[in-house]
């Protein structure tokens, strides 16, 4: 579940192929903070979830896409916000912390991977340059998923959700 108990499925809107609640057979979500191990945690979580859903054949492609979406959210979605002063004490229990949310949704013949971050900035597909070590993330998402998109969060919440969809038939 995303912030305030809202599922990513509720924030996706029209750009996402419909998630039919009648065929929704599983959801799993994971909150991630801006820490180096977060991308690995997201990949491990995805692998374990897909295996539990008997979708082991999807682990490599979905794991790669999750890595790219989470990396982008951590790198660009959190960086776009003003920095937290170092003198600020650790947040109190229940306080809002800047996080990225990964949600996996299994539907009939479809798997949706959604990553929510607090930045409203649109994701950008950069030009491919063979000499560049970065900037290939959304190109990989395009290649390994059946489609992807994004939209701003609704209901007065700041941020966006970027999603990718995979066929499971």
How would you explain this protein's 3D organization?
The protein is 28% helix and 22% strand. With 169 residues, it is of the alpha+beta class. It has a five-stranded antiparallel β-sheet with strand order 1-2-3-5-4. A hairpin with a 2-residue loop joins strand 2 and strand 3. The radius of gyration is 16 Å and the shape is globular.
Helix content: 25-40%
Largest sheet: 5 strands, antiparallel
The number of helical elements comes to 4
Task: Give the class from helix and strand content and strand pairing.
Answer: alpha+beta
| Total DSSP E strands | 5
What is the straight-line distance between the termini?
A: 26 Å
Radius of gyration: 16 Å
Sum up the overall morphology in one term: globular
Fraction in beta strands: 15-25%
Low-confidence stretches: none
The whole-number mean of residue pLDDT values reads 80
List SSEs in N-to-C order.
HEHHEEHEE
Order the strands across the largest sheet as they lie in space: 1-2-3-5-4
């Amino acid at each position: 579940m995303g912030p305030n108990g809202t599922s990513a499925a509720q924030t996706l809107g029209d750009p996402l192929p419909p998630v039919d609640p009648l065929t929704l057979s599983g959801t799993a979500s994971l909150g991630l903070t801006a820490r180096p191990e977060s991308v690995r945690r997201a990949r491990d979580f995805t692998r374990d979830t897909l295996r539990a859903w008997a979708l082991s054949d999807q682990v490599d492609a979905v794991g790669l896409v999750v890595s790219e979406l989470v990396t982008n959210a951590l790198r660009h979605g959190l960086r776009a916000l003003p920095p937290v002063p170092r003198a600020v004490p650790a947040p109190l229990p229940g306080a809002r912390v800047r996080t990225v949310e990964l949600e996996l949704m299994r539907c009939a013949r479809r798997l949706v991977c959604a990553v929510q971050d607090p930045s409203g900035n649109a994701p950008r597909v950069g030009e491919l340059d063979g000499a560049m070590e970065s900037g290939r993330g959304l190109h990989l998402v395009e290649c390994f998923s059946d489609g992807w998109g994004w939209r701003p969060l609704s209901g007065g919440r700041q941020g966006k959700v970027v999603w990718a969809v995979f066929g499971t038939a």
